[in-house]
Amino acid sequence: MPFWKLAVLYVASLLVFLGIDFVWLTTMGDRFYRKQLGSLMSDTPNLAVALLFYLVYVVGVLVLVVMPAVDAGSLWKAVVAGALLGLVAYGTYDITNLSTIAGWPAVIAVVDLIWGTTLTAAVSAIGYVVARWLA
User: Which 3 state secondary structure label does DSSP give 46?
Assistant: First the structure.
């Protein structure tokens, strides 16, 4: 795939990821996360660090999930591999926090695992569709 198409795929996937996660975080931030985390949650997120996560994570989604699924010609592979990547990535964060941060709520870990799995599967599926359209 030419570089410009990869760039379009990356930007499209990034915007989808940011858009869906923005809705989730603005909807659930105070309603769920602040209630569960209390003083552990920052009053204002560090947007530069958050952006760094998004920029790197979407590269991982494209390289590890979307492009192999495109090569295989399988939307199902994109969804399943995306779900697995989301489970592993979000699990790394939440399970580590559960084991190392006193008072880290187990419900946060469970909800984040479900969210990360679902979000990454959805973004992978959309990325697959965009990549096939660009091909």
Answer: coil
Q: Which residues contact 39 (CB under 8 A, 6 or more apart)?
A: none
Amino acid found at 41: M
Q: What is the pLDDT of residue 1?
A: 86
Contact 65, 121 (CB under 8 A): no
Q: Across the chain, what does the average pLDDT equal?
A: 96
Q: In this structure, are residues 69 and 78 in contact, taking their beta carbons and an 8 Å threshold?
A: yes
- Measure the CA–CA gap between 51 and 45, rounded to whole angstroms: 11
pLDDT digits (tens, 9 = 90+) for 20-66: 999 999 999 889 999 999 988 998 989 999 999 999 999 999 999 99
Q: Which of 71, 63, 73, 62 is nearest to 127 (CA)?
A: 62
Helices (H), the chain: 3-28, 35-37, 47-61, 67-72, 75-100, 106-134
d(CA 112, CA 129): 25
